[in-house]
What does this fold into?
Amino acid sequence: MMAGLMLAMLLAARDMFRVDVYPLPDPDAYVFLARADADLVGDVAILNGTAMTVHASGSRGTPLTVQLEPGTSAVDVADVDGDKRAEVVAICGDRILTYVLSPGSPSPQPTEALTRPSLLSAACQRPFPRVLVVYRGGRPLLALPQKDFLELVSLDGTVDSRYGVAFESPTFASDFWAYDSRPPLAGSASSLEWRIGARHCGGYDLPVDLKPGPVSFAWEPFPNAWRRDEGKTLPHSRWPTFPLRVMGEDARQVRYQSPAPPGQETVIRIVEQEKRPQPEGSDIPPGDEFVAGPEHRYPGIMVTPDGDLPDYNHDGYVDLTLWQAPDPGLSVNALTRAISIGTWPLRIAVYLYSPEKKRFDIETVKRIDTEAPVFLFMGGEPVQHCVLRDLNGDGYADCGFRTADKKFSIWLYNDGFADKPDAVTVFPEPIKQVAFRADLNGDGSTNVGFRGEKAMYVLGLAQSGDGKTGTVPVP
Amino acid sequence: MIASIVACMTFGVVFTPQDIDGIRVSAPNPLTGNVRKLFLQTDLDADGQTDLIVAGEAIFQRDGVYYPDQRVRLPEIPSPCWVDAWNGTLYFRTQDRLRVFRWTSGVWQQLGDDPLSGAHESSSPCCGNEKQPVPYRYLYDLDGDGAPEAVFPGRDGLYVYALRNGRYAESALLAVYPSVRIDDTYGASLWPAAQRRLTPVDTWMGCQVAVEGLRVTSIERFSVSGGAVRFRTNRYTLDPAQGFAIDPDKTVSTESGLLPSYVEPLRLHSGDSLSFAGTRVDSLETSVPPSSVLTTSVSADGGTSVQTVRTPSFRVNGSFVDVNGDGRLDMITHTTGLYGGGVRETLVRFLSQTSVEHGISVYLQNAEATFPESPTFRKRLAIDLDQPPVYRSHHALAYYAGGLIDVTGDFNKDGWRDLVVRDRPNRLAIYLSAPQGFGESASAAIHIGPEEAFHIVDVNDDGLSDIVISWSGADERSHSRIYFARRDRP
It folds into this structure.
């Protein structure tokens, strides 16, 4: 145990992975990734009120700490002075402050870089991470939000540019509401009472060089109606969609749905976008239309973890991941048996996309047969905290998910999956969520950040490159 | 249409059914069980009987009955429009005007049509897509002179319009909203570089505002670390001599103690200190079979102390009701008999039993604004779920959603809230209550169709609660039958 950090507690087969533990001073503390030192590795930062801790890869286990000034509203970690090292940039009232991150300095003092009012001058409930520094032509600029625009300002106070706020089409009262409470709750029976609210949000009209990259893919939730009995009747144009290619342009996409009753099978249609000519003698302009391929049915339910588009065989196509579980039947004996055992069989089936067959190939199906706690099935979605990414850096997506209350198991893909998990991690507390998936050190392997009540647990390859060694400290 | 039969007779209550289309109410408030009337009640023709304003029409009450041929269209007012009533006069507010009508000699007579200066800023008080006037309360006699002021929430505050020389004109803009806050719920992604996004600062403001006499109360909720909340209350006093402007010397600010995140402000008694109450249902994730716990919390002393009761239950409606009519809200907790016993017993219950035992416990609030440690009285019920719980029948789902039990009605106007239980898919059982608790056996029963829902509301404003049964017809329109309560014996 080193200064409360790097408390690995991995029970890992092959010593391939390790888990670094970052204690959370408060369950609601912000956890975010930043580049805090000179290397290219992502670092884990924790912001709890005005106390900021950065676990920099180059600081050899000693966290960098910054005590922000009271009244600080927003914080960034970026190289704002061009010295190739990141500073903490903070807005406190009208002042823009910088803090030098240095292992030797337990609590660096702020330097006032500029005084300029902005929307962030107002006090917040607590400081929060926000992009405050951008680069234009290699030159750092402060990005300060004003009432109706964003301004880019150099450290000497010179305004570089301003960009207006482009709100989504505002309609009458779309961002203001006042519902009358009848009968009143806080007032007496004869009083007038309302719940009143207003929200102000939108987007900036930014030039190309400031526009961020595409957002990561987000799976659509199944419409509730599908969970009942309307799935069969919904046209495929309303089915959820995912891209056929992991990256790059492709006119094809995949539509899927699980007809009622849920849990039996998933229906897939691959659709292709085609140019539609203008119909002769019609006012309808030419445009695009989707032409749907044949329907294919696969046993099981789609596994759709946040942002993951798994490509198990590294051919550039997204592959299909489904889960299945046997029906216990509705007999007291069968259910009592299942409950007393405490686990229930769970199968994960992976169908690789075949460009030749133009469908997900049922003949080359790869399976994981395991068991999961019965309670996970009660909510209808037993595959939880699932990660379908390349975890060992070999270029192939792997499969990891919760297999017990505090247990996370990983199956590495190697033209299929092993009978038993390649690595099993037992956390000291229940995991609330997968907070991030990111290649922190640029070696192609994914680090997974698990958030608990008491700590962040970051799972990653034990040692970049060899994938063999690793520590197995006991908690 | 009047049903030809009297539905039932109890010791003191008779229910008489009448079909009245257009009577709509909202879903019950989970905390108080009260529904919001989506219609207005006022005596339009000054005959001493309460008439109804529903879906673009007025329905006159004649001899205690709302006859279908006693419906007249409301005046044509462009939508969106919000209607309120005051002493038989209707006020129609559109985006920029306030029109006043009165039913006189069988026709609508327009009494006023005044522009609302600043109304463009006043924005929409509610849904703006309704084709019919939307019932919405905005009339209030601030100074007690008998003529109502109109109070509209706008973006910048409450707009007060007062009657001057026979016309409504802007009198004051009350800046009672809390400051706009930066929405810091989600921190931005700072790494890798491709995920660094420049986004505008999201801001929001939220509050609960009550107007009572010349006092306006604004309550703001703050999240505190560890999942707790705190409420800041600002009490403003209006000065009628200054056109209802806020008297800055009389503004009082208070802040509550730390409270559980699920509570909200609720007037539990007539005292000056603000009180808070709330319920939360927790599913026990790792319990097999799944179970849930209902936590009911209350603080009647401004958040200084919190009293909490936990019971095995699903969501309920009406955890705080003035059961004994003393002006203080009492606490009601529920206990389901679906859980309990070992795994096998629970499974047998889920797989084969169609009936569930349900317990209701009433904690009467005392004069010190506290609740007793143990219930003042209890009631045990048997509810027929139609099918074993595993099949999740329509009736079972309604049970899980708190839709089978209602303790908000007083059908015989004795001050004690009576109990209505949909104890079978097709039956409402009414238990009258008294100081010793709810009746042993049902005093009355009313038939209800399997696809129908019921709510308790005093439709004819006679002080006796009525039972509204509503359903969607084949024409996809909402229909309703009202079982009007009437005292049979003194």
Remarks:
- The two ends of chain B are 28 Å apart (CA to CA).
- Chain B has three helices and 39 strands.
- Chain B has a mean pLDDT of 89.
- Chain B touches chain A through 77 residues (CB under 8 Å).
